Each structure stands twice: as structure tokens, then as C-alpha cells.
């Protein structure tokens, strides 16, 4: 039998007293705990430490697997995003980036593994609407704005929450709402375009507007899929600045292939491959990883 840590303190010649001193504990013989009890205590302590690590994170994926017709699109994927962190996700086509986002947002259910938000919320048990309501916003690659409405109205409609779009347009804004819209327009570089129809924006400005519409829902975590695809170089640079500003108050996960943009983000990078994390760290570290060069950057 191995020595086990004794959880009691023996008094000289007498029975054990509780370590914390106080008032309870009837007299007990001073015996070591059964080895199984010791193992169980160690297991519980380990679980408690894991639970604590999970509770300190905003997004926690562990051992996540998802197969489509026997093909593992996500394969034992583990990924942790801290509160207030921005993370860039890179990786070759088919690496599982979109499927990972689908799992986080409840569009796809994993076959195995844990997916937790804000410590304790098991996302695998929530549907898409509930996940959006609890503060996870997603921007797809193609912007979907209301083209026949002004930029400001697009943001007001997203602020409206449970109001219908029609009601939102008739609704008289409170001073607080006007300020929020103004702040979002400023963050998304669209103040001068507030009265412009969304249809008349450039592609890059439409992407920013959609980011603004997400911000109007006040998400704690933003998932952004290839935001700079099709943007000019100037728009790409501005998008990096814009996302860095947003990430001062929220967590952001950005999937992107444009390495100039990823460098401008200047954040930790995760490279996915065949549904798992292939490499993780600074962009310099990840791009110097021979495995990343082989499957992605060297192509
Ligand atoms: N609904 C589905 N049914 C069958 N296979 C799927 C489905 N969704 C994804 N896959 C497969 O899973 C793998 C991962 O796809 P996924 O779209 O997640 O990759 P990705 O990293 O986002 O790629 P890309 O950079 O091209 O967008 C691919 O081989 C894809 O064909």
C-alpha cells in the first residue's frame, strides 16, 4: 500500500481531530484512508482543477470529434480561448475550420467531446438561437446586410433584439440607443456613411457593416469567417485595426487565409489540419513549423 496523505491530525495518545480544528467530528480511530479513497480523492482534485481551468476560459473545446459518413472532419480537437483574447485560425481547405465554428454555434452537434462557453454552459446541449442569445455572434464570409436600408438602420435593426424589423424602423430611439449606434458606426469606420443605402457600400464596407450589426447584439465572443476575402489592401489593413479595437472588450476568433492580415492582427495563431490542432503559438512560431509549411504555407 502506498503512503497516503493523512487528512487528520492525531493528538498525542488520542483519537484524530479534524485538521480544521473546530467543533464537529466524533472520535475516529487513526487509520489511513483506503487506497481507493485516496485514488478517488486524487481524481476528484484533478477534476476540480480541470473544472477550474474550464471556468476561467470563455470557450473550451476538449476532445471534440465530428464525422460525416465515417470521415472525421473534426478529430479529437482541443482549443481554449481566454476571456478577452483574439485568436486567428488558419489551415488548409478541409481542415475543419468551418465545422468547428458550426459546432461552437450549435449548427452541428459533435459526436464526442466537450464544448463549454463562459465556463459552465455546455454548448452541445443548446440550440443555435439559444447560443446566439447567450453572446456568441458569427459573421459568415459573405456579407448579409439589408441592402435597401441605410447603414444606420441596419445597425438599429440589429439592436432591436426581439422587436420585428418593421417595429424597429418605426421605433423612436432612446438616447442610449442613438449613442450605441453612433459608437458602432465609429468603430466600423462608417460614421460618414450612416445615411447611405447599404447597397451602395463597397464590399469591404459591407463586411464592416455586418461586423457592426453583430456588435449591436453585444456578443461576448465573435466568430469571424474570412473577413478580408475580396477586400482591397487598404480595407484589409483597416479591418485588422478594427478587429483589434473590438478585441479590447470582447473575445474574437478569426478564420483567415490571408497571412498579411493574420500578421497585422498580431495574435496567437492556431493551425488546424485534418480536424485537429497541428501547431499553435505566435505566427512566427507556427509559420516556421515544418508540418505547417508542408500541409499549408508551402503550397
Ligand atoms: N455536412 C457535411 N457533410 C459531409 N462532409 C462535410 C460536411 N461538412 C464538412 N464536411 C467535410 O469535412 C471536412 C472539413 O470541412 P470544413 O468546411 O470544416 O473545412 P474548412 O477548414 O472550413 O475548409 P475551407 O478552408 O475550404 O473552408 C471537409 O473534408 C468537408 O468536405
Automatic annotation (TrEMBL):
Domain of life the protein comes from: Bacteria
UniProt xrefs under SMART domains: AAA
Chain ranges of the ABC transporter domain: 59-299
GO cellular component: plasma membrane
Chain positions covered by the region annotation Disordered: 1-34
InterPro entries linked to this entry: AAA+_ATPase, ABC_AA/LPS_Transport, ABC_transporter-like_ATP-bd, ABC_transptr_urea_ATP-bd_UrtD, BCA_ABC_TP_C, P-loop_NTPase
Keyword vocabulary terms for this entry: ATP-binding, Nucleotide-binding, Transport
Compositionally biased intervals (Low complexity): 1-27
A GO term for molecular function: ATP binding
ATP-binding among keywords: yes
Record-linked CDD domains: ABC_Mj1267_LivG_branched (cd03219)
Pfam families attached to this UniProt entry: ABC_tran (PF00005), BCA_ABC_TP_C (PF12399)
This protein's record includes keyword Transport: yes
Record-given protein name: High-affinity urea porter, ATP-binding component
Organism: Aurantimonas manganoxydans (strain ATCC BAA-1229 / DSM 21871 / SI85-9A1)
Amino acid at each position: 500500500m502506498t503512503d497516503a496523505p493523512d487528512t487528520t491530525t492525531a493528538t498525542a495518545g488520542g483519537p484524530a481531530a479534524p485538521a480544521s480544528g473546530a467543533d464537529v467530528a466524533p472520535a475516529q480511530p487513526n487509520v489511513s484512508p483506503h487506497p481507493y479513497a485516496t485514488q478517488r480523492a486524487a481524481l476528484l482534485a484533478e477534476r476540480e482543477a480541470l473544472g477550474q481551468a474550464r471556468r476561467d476560459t470563455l470557450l473550451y473545446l476538449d476532445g471534440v470529434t465530428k464525422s460525416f459518413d465515417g470521415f472525421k472532419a473534426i478529430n479529437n480537437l482541443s482549443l481554449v480561448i481566454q476571456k478577452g483574447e483574439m485568436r486567428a485560425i488558419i489551415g488548409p481547405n478541409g481542415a475543419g475550420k468551418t465545422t468547428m465554428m458550426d459546432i461552437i454555434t450549435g449548427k452541428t452537434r459533435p459526436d464526442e467531446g466537450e464544448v463549454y462557453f463562459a465556463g459552465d454552459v455546455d454548448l452541445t446541449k443548446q440550440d443555435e438561437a439559444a447560443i446566439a442569445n447567450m453572446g456568441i455572434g458569427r459573421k459568415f464570409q459573405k456579407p448579409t446586410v439589408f441592402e435597401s436600408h441605410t447603414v444606420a438602420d441596419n445597425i438599429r435593426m440589429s439592436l432591436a433584439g426581439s422587436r420585428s424589423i418593421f417595429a424597429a424602423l418605426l421605433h423612436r430611439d432612446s438616447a442610449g440607443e442613438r449613442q450605441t449606434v453612433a459608437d458602432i458606426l465609429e468603430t466600423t469606420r462608417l460614421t460618414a456613411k450612416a445615411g447611405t443605402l447599404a447597397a451602395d457600400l463597397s464590399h469591404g464596407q459591407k463586411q464592416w457593416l455586418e461586423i457592426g450589426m453583430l456588435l449591436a447584439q453585444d456578443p461576448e465572443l465573435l466568430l469571424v469567417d474570412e473577413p478580408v476575402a475580396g477586400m482591397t489592401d487598404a480595407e484589409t489593413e483597416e479591418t485588422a485595426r478594427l478587429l483589434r479595437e473590438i478585441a479590447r472588450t470582447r473575445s474574437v476568433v478569426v478564420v483567415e487565409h490571408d497571412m498579411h492580415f493574420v500578421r497585422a492582427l498580431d495574435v496567437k495563431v492556431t493551425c488546424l489540419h485534418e480536424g485537429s490542432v497541428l501547431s499553435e503559438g505566435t505566427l512566427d512560431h507556427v509559420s516556421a513549423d515544418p508540418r505547417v509549411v508542408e500541409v499549408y504555407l508551402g503550397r
